[in-house]
Amino acid sequence: MTAVRMSVQEQQPHMVMLPFMAQAHMLPMVDLARLLAKRGLTISILATPHNAGRFKSAIDRAIATGLDIHILHLKFPCSEVGLPDGCENFDMLASGNDVLKFFRAIDMLKEQVEEMLRQLEPSPSCLIADACFPSWATNVALKLDIPRVLFYATTCFALLCQHIQNNCKELEAITSDTEYFVVPGLPDRIELTKAQLGGAPKNPSFEWNELWDEMRKAESEAFGAIVANTFEELESEYIKEYKKAIGKGVWCVGPVSLCNKDYADKVERGNKLVSADENEYYLKWLDSREPGSVIYVCLGSQSSPSTLQLIELALALEASNRPFIWVLRNASEESQKWILEEKFEERIKDRGLLIRSWAPQVLILSHPSIGAFLTHCGGNSMVEGMTAGVPMLTWPVFSDTFRNEKLIVNVIKMGVRVGVEKPVFLGEDEDEHRVQVKKDEIKRAIEKLMSGGEEGKEMRKRAKELGEMAERAVEEGGSSYLNVTLFIQDVMAEQARLAGLQ
């Protein structure tokens, strides 16, 4: 026992990180890995070869500066669950029908993860596993006397809404998916529909319900939660209420994306390395525009509007007579066919730029010509827009994005709602014939934010203030910087307790 005691008390803190295999989850966890390594910790990231390849260059640069970060490969059991070989990331799934197969594959990683944790030297101090991993991650960690911390790439506002949905009995009486109601227990009056509040699929199967229960169980059994995309000054009341609701440690350490200070980190914070020529072209195009005049449009890496909806958005952007950059990486063949046949790109060539590959979003948003961000309200995109001081046009799609929209529009008041009402549920594909918002509604939202009226000016001012607050939060002595310190102290104390040292 003495030898065990010595090794736990004197060893270098060693955090093991298990990111969920989706771009929006991996990026902030890799940012967090670098933040923790800068505090002198040893970091091991467990990832499949394909996913590791997406962030390897960023980690290589961090290692070159002396940071102690390691990438360890997991074998993703694609063929065992009926997925094509190499299908290792959520954005590689061919259809919504493959989502359950993907989660089955994740369930099969348990033995590999346990074996790696057993063999690692120095022995792990903590397992930081994405909240999408089921409770086996907690069980494996506790079996080895390691605290498991949940990782969330979202906000405490979104987490509190989800917690209320999972635990509030009075919501069970609401049967309609489309009727708005006031979410109970929130500091502000927030109205959502039941479909917007939750992330589970509509009419879930038994297997889906089991998966959802496993995620809730993981939340209840974990040591605490580290939240990467928020900070105390952004939503102090919601952080306080979420801590109270779950009765565990909650460490808000964001925005972690602000660790990307170097040009190379900003450029490569994404799926693929964009060529230097492409980056130069984008920046020159932006340089030629007036400050605050360009609308940046990106609806995330996991979804794309139906063809009919995309046409409405295209016509609205054209009718706005404002310069825009539109990322169309996931556009369907039908959508691309319309763009070609209608000569849309030719029609807007003097003031519109279409990007069909991965875009260097952090780099684009930080350019002074950007005046608005039309976003799907994903946690990373929301905080990247905020830290750049850019007000938003909100177009939520699924999961926490409808909740994030409420935070942007109703709580921190730095955005305009476009008007999307119905979410795409996890495991479903976008209805090719669905149009939720028409051209005139989209154009109206653009004008409200960009026309120079008092409301738009106030949102722009608020966005700038929040960007400055975010910068101060991550600086030495700021709230997020201090929360990283507290997190390390709390985790090390919990590890000592689990090992019987306290």
UniProtKB/TrEMBL annotation:
<dbReference type="GO" id="GO:0035251">
    <property type="term" value="F:UDP-glucosyltransferase activity"/>
</dbReference>
<dbReference type="Pfam" id="PF26168">
    <property type="entry name" value="Glyco_transf_N"/>
</dbReference>
<keyword id="KW-0328">Glycosyltransferase</keyword>
<keyword id="KW-0808">Transferase</keyword>
<feature type="domain" description="Glycosyltransferase N-terminal">
    <location>
        <begin position="15"/>
        <end position="256"/>
    </location>
</feature>
<dbReference type="InterPro" id="IPR058980">
    <property type="entry name" value="Glyco_transf_N"/>
</dbReference>
<protein>
    <submittedName>
        <fullName>UDP-glycosyltransferase 73C3</fullName>
    </submittedName>
</protein>
<dbReference type="Pfam" id="PF00201">
    <property type="entry name" value="UDPGT"/>
</dbReference>
<dbReference type="InterPro" id="IPR002213">
    <property type="entry name" value="UDP_glucos_trans"/>
</dbReference>
<comment type="similarity">
    <text>Belongs to the UDP-glycosyltransferase family.</text>
</comment>
